[in-house]
Design a protein that fits this description.
Blueprint (H helix, E strand, L loop, with lengths): L2 E7 L6 H9 L6 E7 L6 H7 L3 E4 L5 H11 L4 E4 L4 E3 L4 H11 L4 E9 L5 E5 L5 H6 L9 E3 H7 L10 H9 L5 E12 L3 H4 L1 H14 L4 H20 L1
Helix pairs in contact: 7-9, 9-10
């Protein structure tokens, strides 16, 4: 199966080479890499061009618009979105995931991701094997570790650009009970701290609350969970 890796980026010159290198190191033989640039004003495109990677560069309506553009351009059977400040944890990640998906007849697969600081030290591991009930409670799937067949997007739609941070949560809730999803308990991806969901925590929780209500969770319990997460995050920052 062919794999398309989509890298959305805006002014990612400081990190995108590490992302590109981690893709080039993959031992899987059939990879297409697409960069979706949002009209960067630094030298991001110089780096992309020097690596001979297919790209488009134009204004967009946010990161999920970039996701959607990449998915539409993808020719692979499976799509993985690897942000410009993320990288694969090992050189055989793609091959491990594709083998697992093939062996288990999966439409989507997710694993763990590790958040790292500017010293490349692991700060936290995210992700886990959960049910839809758990996903309604909180976004516990590591989206940067999630591989999805392209025909899933064709059948169930793209990411909603009405969400600025939690469209991945809404999308997973939308498809969760309709396809075969599996969890592979390995660290697939390393993510640098400072992404949108890390820097705008309150908005992230608010949008996840909206996604959960949209897909069937009672409003009152969702609101209670929202305030609990806000309080927990404040204590986490203090500690």
């Amino acid at each position: 199966m062919k794999v398309t890796i989509v890298t959305p980026v805006y002014n990612g010159a400081n990190t995108i080479q590490d992302c590109i290198d981690s893709i080039k190191l993959q031992d899987y033989p059939d990879i297409e890499h697409l960069v979706i640039d949002g009209n960067s004003t630094d030298n991001t495109l110089d780096i992309v061009k020097s690596n001979n990677i297919k790209y488009i560069s134009e204004a967009d309506a946010g990161i999920y618009d970039a996701f959607n553009k990449g998915i539409r351009l993808a020719s692979g059977d499976i799509v993985h979105i690897l942000n410009s400040d993320d990288m694969y944890a090992e050189k055989n990640i793609v091959s491990q995931v594709i083998q697992y998906m093939t062996d288990n007849n999966l439409d989507a697969c997710h694993g763990y991701a590790e958040q790292i600081n500017n010293k490349n030290e692991v700060v936290r591991r995210v992700g886990g094997d959960i049910t839809k009930k758990g996903l309604l409670s909180k976004m516990k799937v590591s989206h940067p570790s999630t591989f999805i067949k392209r025909n899933v997007y064709q059948k169930y739609g793209e990411y909603s650009v009405g969400f600025k941070i939690a469209a991945d949560h809404e999308f997973l809730l939308r498809i969760w009970d309709k396809i075969n999803i599996g969890f592979l308990p390995i660290v697939t991806t390393k993510m640098r701290l400072g992404g949108a969901s890390n820097s705008q925590v309150t908005l992230s929780y608010r949008e996840s609350l909206a996604a959960a209500i949209l897909h069937g969770k009672p409003a009152i319990s969702s609101l209670v969970k929202y305030y609990i997460e806000i309080i927990k995050n404040k204590f986490y920052k203090i500690s």
